[in-house]
Amino acid sequence: MSQPTFLSALACVFLAGVVHSQTAEPPAKPARVPPPAVAPAGSLYARLGGTPAVTAFVDDTIEKVATSHDTKRSFDKVNLQHVKNMLVDQICSLTGGGCVYTGDNMREVHAGHKITNAEFYQLVEMLRDSMRDHDVPLAARNELLEILAAMKRDVVKL
């Protein structure tokens, strides 16, 4: 997988919760069901490390992007815990973990936010580093990035 595709995939997931979290009163949605304590055997979610590892690398990544000079503007006045929860749910749902993602689609979430390629790739790089720091195997990292890559066109608008 090429570097831009890999980076694009990771950034899509993290940016998914950003815009949704900026609304004061989100539309009525089903109640959030926490990810499973044990990931389904053989699933990509399990190979990512299940809920403990996914939660850890998502938390780490969101904290980094929310404080980095280059990416923090997208996270200003955002409920970071909501972003983290939605991202964990989305990854869980996309990778066979048994979760149901209840957030908005990527196009709606990022409409009007003018996310640049540079911001997107920086976020992806931080996610990649966080997954590596939390010992997510390379093959699982690449599989997740491949799944997420198609979302870039709905996130980046500049």
What does this structure look like?
Helix 1 crosses helix 6 and helix 1 packs across helix 7. With 158 residues, this protein is mostly helical. It is 61% helix and 0% strand. The protein has a single domain, classed as Globin-like. It is globular, with a radius of gyration of 14 Å. About 12% of the residues have low confidence.
Summarize the structure.
This protein has helices spanning 3-22, 44-48, 50-67, 80-94, 106-110, 117-133, 138-149, 152-155. With 158 residues, the protein is mainly α.
> In total, how many domains does the architecture comprise?
1
Strand content: under 5%
From the N-terminal CA to the C-terminal CA, the straight-line distance is: 23 Å
Number of helices: 8
Quaternary structure state of the chains depicted: single chain
| Category from helices, strands and their pairing | mainly alpha
Average pLDDT number: 80
Salient structural properties:
8 helices; 158 residues; mainly alpha
Summarize the SSE layout with pairings.
Layout: H1 3-22, H2 44-48, H3 50-67, H4 80-94, H5 106-110, H6 117-133, H7 138-149, H8 152-155
Helix pairs in contact: 1-4, 1-6, 1-7, 3-4, 3-6
